[in-house]
Amino acid sequence: MKKYSILFLVCILLSCKEETKVKTSRVATLPYYSEASFTPHWLYKGDEELKNFHKIPSFSLVNQDGKKVTEKTFEDKIYITDFFFTTCPGICPKMTANMSVLQDEFINDDEVLLLSHSVTPETDSIQVLKDYAEAKDVVSAKWHLVTGERKTIYDLGRKSYFVEENLGEEKTEDDFLHTENFVLIDKDKHIRGIYNGLNKTAVQQLITDVKTLKNEK
């Protein structure tokens, strides 16, 4: 009887080990995305198709320190972006808390930056963003909270990052943009992932995917 008990225990341990292996295994490369359905394109770095593939376009915004933030700010950087507003009572506090998790994870990694766009730029002035940043322990060199022209921000959200579900309805900056999505952008300005910014498991997957991108050849 004792022998069978030992055998049963060994089987359980081996099963747990195998389960852990499955949970921690990850793909060697991430897909690319080019539109709002987030259909994955499995391309390799240097693929001819990437020459005309969707990229985040040029932009010009201002961060919590009153400094201009453009696409050049993220030159040769991996970055994670989202859309929020400082007076949001709903999803934004949780999103900000999870962006703080990402800030802590990559605080000493110069290759990774964070970018949060205000969807109420008319009220989220530079000073308001500065106060919010100080309250949330935002590290300016790592995490940019930006304001600017409403149309610029909304076009970036809907037409460039595809953060809002596309139901086939044309929207303008008069239609409020509100989304929990985080988007992962590689060093070549390509979209490589979208994640639920309210979900801890999704945020941990995002951290893993950033590390995968860093190892991409």
UniProtKB/TrEMBL annotation:
It comes from the Bacteria. Belongs to the SCO1/2 family. Keywords: Copper. The keyword Metal-binding does not apply. This is SCO family protein. Residues 50-215 form the Thioredoxin domain. InterPro entries: SCO1/SenC, Thioredoxin-like_sf, Thioredoxin_domain.
